[in-house]
Amino acid sequence: MSLSVERMLPGHWPEVRAVYLEGLATGDATFETEAPDWGRWDASHLRACRLVALDEGERVAGWAALSPVSAREVYAGVAEVSVYVGADFRGRGLGRALLEALVRESEAEGIWTLQASIFPENVASVALHESCGFRLVGRRERVGKLRGRWRDTVLLERRSRIVGAD
After folding, report:
1. Nearest to 96, CA basis, from 81, 108, 109
2. Which of 116, 111, 112 is nearest to 129 (CA)?
């Protein structure tokens, strides 16, 4: 099966949301418990650096996007990564293709630091990020509750060797 990574368009949203819901169902993807509507999602993510992976039938198999970490100008080059792969497509290298493309897009947009906050139980996601140049910064213990249970996250970051290297 061949997959293509392309810019996410508003028309992809229903399928992007469906993949997001599959991630939510795992219990190890995010603190969120429901998928937002398009307006809320659109407002919380950078306009650039929104990608989808499409299968041969043009169905969304996964997606990746960036969110700003702060509204302060000094952090304009720092963004948080989201990568989601549909349940039927996991384990096929799609996450890597999306994350590598997202890194390239982020550098083209002048972003010098990418960060990811991941539940440590999501071993596949931690390994994916590390294989794409992210390093472990630390562990945040009992940082938030999900469905009444305290959860830790690990913070990983990737510093660009191109943007902000001076």
Report:
1. 81
2. 116
The domain in which residue 83 lies consists of 4-159
127 in a structural domain: yes
pTM above 0.90, yes or no: yes
Which letter, b or e, does each residue of 48-86 get, where b requires 16 or more Cβ atoms within 10 Å of its Cβ? ebbbbbbbeeebbbbbbbbeebeeeeeeebbbbbbbbbb
Q: Which residue has the tokens 């819901």?
A: 21
165 in a structural domain: no
Contact predicate 120/139, CB 8 Å:
yes
In a domain, 10, yes or no: yes
Average pLDDT, the chain: 95
Answer yes or no: is 166 within a domain: no
